[in-house]
Amino acid sequence: MARNIEQIMELFQSGPEWGMSKLSPPDKASLLELQKTYPLPEDYVKIQSVTDGFVLFQAGDYRMNDLKFILKTRSWVPYNLGLMDSVVTVGYFMGYDIVINQRESRTASYLYAGDSGSDFIRIGTITDFFNGLIESKGELPFWESKGQELFDFSADNLPQNPGVLEVPARGRRIVSTRPYYPSPEEIHRNGLDRAVTVEYSNGTETIFFLRDGERID
């Protein structure tokens, strides 16, 4: 049975098996700042209006981030994941960062989970995420990743794809390879003098420097 946010939070609080942390009232100033900074989905805002983040199973690796943490990660290097500015990290569950793609915050597919900047899987909404977590009794990942498109939200992907936010990180195929002739500066910087340009089916190109005996098929 699919539950709404109110029902989900009530279940987490009433069921001792979820080991939910004591809820703290949201910091109104931080919530207002977050809403001004990011266009956030309604169901996510409902959670933050109830509690300023929380953990499940009394463990830090099942957590929804508090507001100050979320706001701080944009500028604090130790916690900045190197993601595009329009992606906000709202949680962390057993090795998976849970992020909102703000450009899709008014759709039913704004939430992603991944373990690196370039390997995110679309999992719907925060409501979908918690319903899946409940149905799987806390097991992660409960989504099916095999064969799904992966999305690259890493900041260094943006210059290669101007105006494009969602770029498959895998599943792309090599269209062509051609010789690349590095400059003396590039040879000095990379320590290698052989390179190729690889063109992918999504229109991006990457230069690979090759060691002796190495090749790109």
Structure, explained:
This is SMI1/KNR4 family protein. It comes from Neglectibacter timonensis. The chain has helices at 5-14, 28-37, 42-50, 67-73, 126-135, 184-190, and strands at 54-55, 62-64, 87-93, 96-101, 111-114, 120-124, 174-180, 194-200, 205-210. It has 217 residues and is α+β, with helices and mostly antiparallel strands. The strands form two sheets. A six-stranded antiparallel β-sheet has the order 1-2-3-4-5-6. A three-stranded antiparallel β-sheet has the order 7-8-9, with no helix packed on it. A hairpin with a 4-residue loop joins strand 8 (194-200) and strand 9 (205-210). It is elongated, with a radius of gyration of 21 Å. Mean pLDDT is 79; it is low at 158-172.
Q: What attributes does this structure have?
A:
elongated; 217 residues; 6-stranded antiparallel beta sheet
Q: Tell me the fraction of residues in β-strands, as a range.
A: 15-25%
Give the strand order of the largest sheet, numbering strands 1, 2, ... along the chain.
Answer: 1-2-3-4-5-6
What is the CA-CA span between the terminal residues? 48 Å
The radius of gyration is 21 Å
Helix content: 10-25%
- As residue ranges, the low-confidence spans are 158-172
| Average residue pLDDT | 79
What series of H and E elements makes up the topology?
HHHEEHEEEEHEHEE
SSE-based structural type = alpha+beta
What coarse outline follows from CA principal-axis ratios? elongated
The total of beta strands comes to: 9
Sheet with the most strands?
Answer: 6 strands, antiparallel
Number of helices: 6
